[in-house]
Design brief:
alpha+beta, 28% helix, 86 residues
């Protein structure tokens, strides 16, 4: 949970890579109510989202260079080895 906490607190520039690389995530959603949103120097504003509006920004883990990815449309248990190709 520490990686997720850092992700939304905005305390680390590489928080997105750390969270995506260690958790089975495809997308990360940041809302305008999250503390990291208010920091205009945070990763939320330095990265290109796959979707954004006035209240939410969504980031794809693959774009963050995440090594740990699950197959789309399957549970993490269906492909527990993140080194297997999609």
């Amino acid at each position: 949970m520490a990686r997720v906490d850092r992700l939304y607190a905005g305390s680390a520039e590489n928080a997105l890579e750390q969270a995506c690389g260690s958790l089975p995530l495809d997308l990360v959603e940041v809302k305008h109510t999250d503390p990291v949103w208010a920091d205009r120097e945070s990763w939320v504003w330095r990265r290109s989202p796959v979707f954004s509006n006035r209240h939410v920004r969504m980031f794809e883990c693959a774009a963050a260079g995440a090594a740990h990815q699950t197959r789309r449309g399957t549970s993490p248990g269906a492909n527990p080895n993140p080194t297997e190709p999609r």
